[in-house]
Every structure is written in C-alpha cells, then in structure tokens.
C-alpha cells in the first residue's frame, strides 16, 4: 500500500513537500484553509542549493518566469554611486545550479502544477498519483502519534505521515515541541512593492540606473542608519521587486504578520527622505505598497514527533538576509523524498508496509537540525558584525563558517550556503543508517 500523507498548508513549503513525497510514491492530500482566490506576494530568490532540487524535479523555469541573477550592485543610498559590485555569472558553474528570482505567485503556481500534474519524459515520471489539494479545509487539531487530522467540520482523517506546513503563524508548533509557541516582534518591518519595468525604462530619471544592466541585486544602503533597499527583477524581467527595511512605524505596529498588509506611498517616501531622489521616483511607479513585520522565534528544539514533521515557515523564521527561507523548505522536501523512497532508493517504493515513519523522521531531524539552526542564526545576524546570533552560528559551524566581515551574497557567503547539497547529505546518512546499500 502506498504511504498516505496529509500535508497541512499549500504554500511553498507544503507544495514542495507534496512534490517530494509524491516522487517517493506516496498518496498525498493537502489541506489548505484558504481558497486561493487572492494569491499575493512579492518576489523570492532561490539560490543554487534550492535550484538543484527544483531541477531534479523537472521544474519549469520558463513557465515560472525565472530571472537568473547575474550581478550584485551595492550603491551609496545618497549618491547611487557604486560601493561594491560582484559578478554572479559564474554561480551556475561554481555550484552546479543557478540563482534565480521568481514572483512568489509564479513560483507557487508552478509548484502546484508539479504537485498535481503529470510529468513527461522517460526520466521524470512521478511515482505517486497527483496530489489532491482540498481548498477551504481548515485543520483545527492533529494527533502526532496516531496521524489523525481533525478538520473544522469535525471530519477525522488518518494518515501514515503528517507534514505541518501551515506557515509562520502555525497553530501546531506546540504539538511537535511540547512547549508554548513564542514568537517575537523584532521591531523592524519591510515595505515592499512591485514596479513595472516598462515604467522605469520609459522615464529618463530612472532609466539610466537600470537600462542595459545585467539582472541581479541593486541595493542602495547606508550603514550608519541601518538602511538598505533591495531591488531585483522577476516575472521575465517585467517587474522590479523592491523591499525596504525600516523600524516599524507607529501606524503599522498593530498590523498582523501578513504579506498583504496595506501601506501607502507616503509612508515609504518618508523613509526615503534624505536619500537619492531616484529611489522615490521608482517607488512612486508602484501600483500599491505593502508592509510586513519581521518576526522570529528561537530555533525549535525538535522537528518531528510520532508520525508528524514540521517544515517551512512553520518550522523556522528565516529573515531574508541570505535568501534561504524558501530554499530551506525546498531542501526539507528533498530530504523527505529520499527518506521515504525506500531501502533501495528506487522510485516508487514509498510504501506504508515496512516503513518505520518515526525512524525516518528521526533521521530527517538528525540531518537537518544543525543546518536549520545555523541558517536561522545567520539570517538573524547583521552582516559585517560578530553579534550574538553570529556567535551562536559559530558554535554550530566552527571553522566551516565564512568570516564575519563577509557581506551578503559575496563569494565566501555563497560558498557556505550554495555548496550544501541536501540530496548528497541525506543519501550519505541513509547509507550510514543502513537504509541504502553502500
């Protein structure tokens, strides 16, 4: 009998887990409280350690409107003169996969198609049946030990494996940890908006800063005020994604931790006051502006219990410092795929008979816990400093960690994050545990 899997949440983490487990031969049902009527979000970066997994799944980058990163440009926020540039064209050659930007909705839709659709090609068939997504089905309780899911209408469903992927405000963290969930408002937020590139390139004031430039990060910054704005293209270079970090303002303090909380252009312009006017001109071309508050919780002490595992934003609050939040969720999905594929590693062997779910989940945590904790601490740390979060990462990684003075996305930072290959690591650990032949 195929392994029966219930996934709670159909975001990037939940869909990725569904794809991985479907590839392992499982029957997957996803329970999503929303109805996908108003999918929202800005852009998202997938670095090579995540792209390797997507490519192994046959992910369609063309359909997803991917923009491959080719450059990093950090500029003075007052003058927009270059402060630091780095060529990213060799990233694929260095790490075996690309670094790409996606509109979050496009990435989500492409993952959804992969979870539900039929793949073509002799080497890309999915072993399990298409995942079933049950929209408008809120999960109100679970039993980790028995695999029972209780829906809002009282329906009870029993699964061999539960995957908790219901996002940063997950209601089931305590079911895994046995402790009350403690999430902390950091006092910082980010304004975000999407600007049509046509509008930027047709304006003589803004065009010189973007015309003819290789796609990549454009980052005006001013360290004495901890100011930085990050901009990069997505959706086939048709939209410019912008995020501006700032101290949470009084009018935003009572807003939920929600990607879609409304803000105004005036709010953003006030933050940009005193910096180069081109940034203001770019933001004014955005149809609307959103704000989201940055929050964190301490790394979880455990990531599984009984027949349940927690992944994605539900499992870890990863700040966008190194663009590893969604990537970690994709890596976790790849780990689940391999762990539940079977003893011989053959596709389609994800059977409930003879599979010790708890033992596989214990190995999942054994492989990923240190990685998750290190990535979370590094995302908390201010680049260029040796603050408490950085020191906690050093305790985990030791000499393998890049120098604390290395800035975001520079070569030593890229090497640390992008060289990690979750598939190789899980395969190695499965061999050591006797799940695979040496």
UniProtKB/TrEMBL annotation:
Residues 4-336 form the FAD-binding domain. The keyword Oxidoreductase applies. Pathway: Secondary metabolite biosynthesis. It holds the Pfam family FAD_binding_3. InterPro entries: FAD-bd (IPR002938), FAD-dep_Monooxygenase_BioMet (IPR050493), FAD/NAD-bd_sf (IPR036188). One of its GO terms (molecular function) is monooxygenase activity. Coiled coil: none annotated. Belongs to the paxM FAD-dependent monooxygenase family. This is FAD-binding domain-containing protein. It comes from Pestalotiopsis fici (strain W106-1 / CGMCC3.15140).
């Amino acid at each position: 009998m195929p392994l029966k899997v219930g996934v709670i949440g159909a975001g990037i983490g939940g869909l990725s887990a569904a794809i991985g487990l479907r590839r392992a031969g499982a029957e997957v049902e996803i329970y999503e409280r929303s109805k996908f009527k108003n999918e929202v979000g800005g852009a998202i970066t997938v670095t090579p350690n995540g792209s390797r997994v997507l490519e192994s799944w046959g992910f369609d980058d063309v359909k997803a409107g991917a923009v491959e990163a080719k450059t990093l440009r950090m500029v003075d926020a007052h003058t927009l003169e270059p402060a630091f540039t780095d060529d990213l064209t060799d990233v694929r050659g260095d790490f075996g996969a690309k670094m790409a930007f996606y509109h979050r909705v496009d990435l989500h839709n492409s993952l959804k198609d992969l979870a539900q659709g039929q793949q073509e090609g002799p080497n890309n068939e999915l072993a399990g049946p298409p995942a079933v997504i049950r929209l408008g089905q809120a999960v109100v309780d679970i039993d980790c030990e028995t695999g029972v899911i209780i829906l809002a209408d009282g329906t009870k469903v029993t699964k061999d494996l539960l995957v908790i992927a219901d996002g940063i405000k997950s209601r089931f963290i305590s079911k895994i940890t046995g402790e009350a969930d403690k999430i902390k408002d950091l006092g910082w937020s980010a304004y975000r908006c999407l600007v049509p590139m046509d509008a930027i390139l047709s304006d003589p004031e803004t065009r010189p800063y973007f015309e003819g430039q290789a796609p990549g990060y454009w980052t005006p910054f001013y360290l004495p005020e901890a100011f930085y704005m990050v901009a990069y293209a997505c959706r086939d270079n048709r939209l410019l994604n912008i995020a501006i970090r700032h101290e949470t303002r009084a009018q935003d303090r009572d807003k939920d931790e929600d990607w879609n909380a409304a803000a105004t252009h005036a709010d953003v312009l006030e933050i940009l006051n005193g910096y180069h006017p081109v940034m203001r001109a770019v933001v004014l071309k955005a149809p609307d502006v959103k704000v989201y508050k940055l929050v964190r919780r301490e790394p979880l002490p455990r990531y599984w219990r009984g027949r349940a595992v927690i992944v994605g934003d539900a499992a870890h609050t990863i700040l966008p410092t190194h663009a590893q939040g969604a990537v970690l969720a994709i890596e976790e999905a790849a780990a689940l795929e391999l762990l539940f594929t079977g003893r011989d590693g053959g596709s389609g062997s994800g059977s409930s008979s003879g599979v010790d779910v708890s033992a596989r989940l214990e190995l999942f945590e054994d492989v990923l816990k240190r990685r998750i904790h290190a990535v979370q601490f590094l995302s908390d740390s201010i680049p260029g400093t040796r603050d408490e979060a950085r020191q906690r990462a050093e305790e985990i990684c030791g000499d393998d960690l890049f120098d604390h003075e290395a800035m975001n996305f520079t070569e030593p930072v890229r090497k640390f994050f992008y060289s990690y290959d979750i598939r190789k690591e899980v395969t190695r650990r499965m061999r050591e545990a006797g799940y695979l032949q040496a």
